[in-house]
Amino acid sequence: MNKKPSPPKYLLSFFRWFCHPDYVEDIEGDLLERFEINPSRWRFSLEVLRLFRPGLLKPLLTNKSMLLPIFKDQVRSSFRILWRQKIYSALIIGSLVVGLTLIHLLLSFLTKASDVDNYLTSKSEVFRILIDDFIDPNSDAWMSSIPDDATSYLRSDCPEYANSCRISKSEITSIAASSNDFLEPLVIAVDTNFLSFFELELQNTSDESPLEKNEIILSSEMAFRMFYSKNPVGQIVEVNERGSKMSFVVSGVIDISSYNSGLKFDAVVPIPETITQSVFYVKQSKASLNESLINRGKEITAQTDYECRLHLQSLEEVHFDADHSWSFNHYTSPTIYFIGWSIVILVLIVIVFNFTNLFLLSSYRRRKELGIKQVFGVGAMVLRRSVMIDVGVFMVIGSFVAIFISSLLLPQTNQWLEINLKPNDLFNYKVVACWSGVMLILIIVIGVLAYEKLKKSSPLKLLNKGKSISSRMARLFLVPQFMISISLIICSLIIVDQINYVKDRPMGMEKDLLVFEVAIRDSRSKMSLLKTEILSQRIVENASLTYGAPVGGGVWFYHIDGFQSEILRITGDKDYLSTVGITLPNEMVRNGYYINETLAQKLGWQSADDGKIPKLDEPALGIVDDFVNASAYSSIKPAIIEIGDKDNYYRIILNYSGKNRKDVLEQVENVWNEILPNDPMIYYSTYEKFLKYHQDDLKLLKIVNAFSRATIIIVLFGLIALSWGVIQARTKEVGIRKVIGANTYQIVFLLSKTFMGWVVIAFILAIPVAFWVSQSWLENFVYRIDMPYHIFAIVGMLAGLISFGIVGSHAYWASRVNPTKCLRDE
Question: How far apart are CA 206 and CA 252, in angstroms?
């Protein structure tokens, strides 16, 4: 006999909960009759959901006059309980504050990253134009630097590109005002419509054309550094543009940091007529631009000597694009953005599990109160509301403390992660909405979990001072917490190992190199004198004049004998190889060309005598050992080194190995000011420039490291409270075992083994998770460490030792209590 189908019980319960009492009986009867005619559970579900509308909902406030006093009474009761259980309350609030503080800061950072350029009213219509790689026609890559003949044609002959703006990195190397001289400022050269195109407003100016010739706009930070509180508009500044000194008038100030713009700069100047390439932005609907992309590319190809295709890139894509990012673009790594959101979710999971554990533990200490309420017939709705209010009180206190602490930590966070969060970013409407949503979800989830657990306990069980009603669920919740924290710690340690490997791996050259560059063209004739003076004063032992450094040198792009590659070409004098520390096996250095091992392998050469260098049509005098000239994400680039005596070298490399860098810089500055008094001393470290390739990895390490520590603190808070509460609930058992002869070690082992078992399970579950995440990240590197399995073992042992230390200490003190006192209390 077939069983008669019945409608879903949970939907009937939901209907009875929301429907007005006057209509429940009649409507429910109709629903059941319709279900008997057509027993479709999906149809029944849709009909119930359609009834969820204002006219049929029960009143939320059945007795408005009584609701507020009841609410106030329950809040006061929650605060009394919080004060009575000071230790547990402190642990609960402390764990909440740690997690919520880091979540608040990370949410603010992620929200600001996603909101870049949102101030633009027409953000969806602003695009950056990319073009084919016109330097290497065989490449499939796109370039963001567009030749001026292409932009001129688009702006003049193509109406859809009329509303456009060009931006280029200016060659200004210093800005001076009075006694303040700022070297290497970030100055951009732009079209005159730059302000209106990007909807930026100037401060303290009425100039309608602030980007005329010899006018400069300063950022508010630069204006303050140069003029302090003085109004800079109308002031004269001296700029050094590749050796030419010019006077500019400050025409305005922009507080660019207040816009959350995708652009960053210290100053803005008009774009010069001699510009050859620039980044090209256009404002037009995407549909209009897409229609003409192919035709416009063909038209540019017909008018120039290179193949041209155009590609649109939205401002959101620009912000997350590392390959085409310029120094004036705000860039956020997509990896950091994704991992940031992942960590927020993981920490939320830890907070939910940990808070539920601790809240159930505190509720266990109130079991008599809850049992008495049930005996006197307190309804489920009242108990649920009471639990929700208790949870809400903890959440509100933890939230306010977390917001206060995150405000205090804001400067350290900016410095630590090299970001620019402001106090108002912590209260961005999206952050507030996310924060409110997180709090609401936590209150509902934790409140429901706690209520459902308490509801399953009978009044007799609650009134009986027996085994903890929450120990099994609490220990079950402990596993995912430990799994997440152990996984994060393993991942952070593997990241540390990889970063240290990148820092310490042999570079094939010296790491202690400083590169100095002259800005004034006439100063190049004095570079030989500068080198001679530095060596004669024995400031360093080795120095070389050059055009380029091993890291950051000039790059050629061309196709050689069937392979496509970037060829790094560097030119230096006869001391170049010895200064940089590049090894030339069994060869004397002569003027001419040398190639590295990578280029020799690509050419199929066994020795330098096997042929001539393509394109140059010159023989190679030798093959030098490979040296690091790229990040660990990519292979070593083929390189050509030209050794020769030239009169126009504009860089000098100093090898300060074995000397104090600060002392070397001070002595070089004295010599520099004597020989080149009008030229600013601009320098950089090749090793520091190499590390900039991995600045995203360093930021990732900091984020993962901080949150792994936070999860450990949260979990330890939970373990301390949980182990203490569970062990205290077994004091009668401890007393009986001591009476029948159990010693301290046996009791400690007995009370600790269950907890340690759950920690072992968490560690076993964490191993595949940490391995998969770490391996996926390591595979991005060409040069990487082997999977460090010893880290898994070390973390596992440390997790076990710390857990045993906490649980064992509680068990030890419980075993030391006089058994007569334990039994008398029971």
Answer: 9
* Collapsed DSSP state (helix, strand, coil) of residue 498: helix
Q: Answer whether 402's CB lies under 8 Å from 101's CB.
A: yes
Query: Maximum distance among all alpha carbons in the chain?
Result: 108
Say how far apart CA 234 and CA 226 lie, in whole Å. 13
Residue 276's CB is within 10 A of a number of other CB atoms, namely: 9
Burial of 248 (0-12, 13-18, 19+ CB in 10 A): buried
- Distances in whole angstroms, Cα of residue 124 to Cα of each of 118, 197, 278, 285, 671: 9, 13, 22, 8, 54
pLDDT digits (tens, 9 = 90+) for 228-237: 767 888 888 8
Q: What are the structure tokens assigned to 445, written together?
A: 């989830």
Judged by DSSP in three states, 145 sits in: strand
Tokens describing residue 648: 């126009």
Q: What is the mean predicted confidence (pLDDT) over 463-483?
A: 63
CA–CA distance, 334 with 499 (Å, rounded to integer): 19
- Identify residue 638 by its one-letter amino acid code: P
Rg value, the chain, Cα? 35
Whole-number Å distance between alpha carbons of 565 and 636 = 11
Contacts of 281 (CB under 8 A, 6+ apart): 126, 127, 128, 129, 164, 165, 166, 167, 197
Q: Report d(CA 196, CA 163) in Å as an integer.
A: 10
Neighbours of 782 (CB within 10 A): 12
Average confidence (pLDDT) over 362-366: 63
- CA dist 552 and 346 (Å) reads 39
Task: Please give the sequence-ordered ranges of beta strands (E in DSSP) within 602-701, or none if there are none.
Answer: 612-613, 618-624, 639-643, 651-655, 682-685
Q: Taking each helix axis as running N to C, give the angle between helix 148-157 and helix 286-303, from 0 to 180 degrees, rounded to the nearest 10.
A: 120
Residue type, 175: I
pLDDT tens for residues 122-171? 888 899 988 876 555 555 667 888 888 888 888 888 888 888 999 998 88
Would you state the structure tokens that stand for residue 60, as one six-digit string?
A: 């939320």
Which residue, among 379, 4, 22, 29, has the nearest Cα to 12 in the 3D structure?
29
Read off the amino acid at residue 494. Answer: I
Which residues on adjacent β-strands are paired with residue 555?
568
pLDDT at 729: 66
Q: Which of 108, 696, 94, 711 is nearest to 413 (CA)?
A: 108
Residue 310 pairs in a beta bridge with 131
CB 684 within 8 A of CB 654: no
Residue 84 CA: distances (Å) to CA of 70, 81, 378, 389 = 21, 5, 23, 17
- Strand 236-241, strand 592-596: pairing: unpaired
Q: Is the dihedral of CA 632, 634, 640, 646 positive or negative?
A: negative
Asked if 633 and 489 touch (Cβ cutoff 8 Å), the reply is no
What is the rounded CA–CA span in Å between residue 536 and residue 545? 15
8 A C-beta contact, residue 48 and residue 11: yes
Contacts of 96 (CB under 8 A, 6+ apart): 351, 355, 394, 395, 398, 399, 402
- 133-142, 718-727, 809-818, range with the lowest pLDDT: 133-142
Which class for 453: exposed (0-12), middle (13-18), buried (19 or more C-beta within 10 A)?
A: buried
Report the SS3 class of residue 409.
Answer: coil
Q: What is the DSSP letter of 203?
A: B
SS3 512: coil
User: Which residues lie below 8 Å from residue 25, measured CB to CB, with a gap of 6+?
Assistant: none
Residue 119 amino acid letter: Y
653-668: average pLDDT: 91
C-beta separation of 814 from 728 below 8 A: yes
Q: How far apart are CA 366 and CA 362, in angstroms?
A: 7
Integer Cα distance of 618 and 729 in angstroms: 86
Percent of the chain at pLDDT > 90 equals 10
Nearest residue to 409 (alpha-carbon basis) of 784, 802, 98: 98
Q: Give residue 261's Cα distance to chain centre.
A: 18
